[in-house]
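Hi everyone,

Forwarding the result from last night's run.
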Amino acid sequence: MNSKLIRNILILILVISNIGCDQASKKIARDKVEYNEYIEVLDKYFIITKVENTGAFLGLGNDLPKIYWNILMLGLPILVLFGLLIHVMVKNHYDKYSILGLTFIIGGGMGNMIDRYLYQSVTDFMHIDFGFAKTGIFNMADVSVMVGVFILLFQYILPYLQKKKEVEEIPSS
């Protein structure tokens, strides 16, 4: 097998793994948790609860008319995600960290798209509350997307930080 084929198979495995983790966790939440049930996993800091989100991030788009919802919550994201997946598989200029970050974003996005297509909503079931910092209710697809974003940010910020450190280490004359 050539290296491009192996690379693309690995990309697909990463995307499918992200989708699989998301869908498996949502299935457990759908089957085992009642709507708005409040299960304390780590005291009051990490809660399992179940809600259905018909919109996007924090319910954005919940009240759109059906035709616009189909376009903005299903059609456009699916086109973007598949376009991005094809782009990552075709272009060779991405390094391994960029590919890792992008596959997490694509897999997480596709996990939520599967929910929107099958159920017309996304199952969210985790909530973190540290008092000074708290989240909305989210799912593993959201975690995948955030991990992917952090990988990309870290990867692009790290060279800047290293360069800045090198400049600071140069002794002044």
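The CA atoms of residues 100 and 148 lie 7 Å apart.

Cheers,
N.
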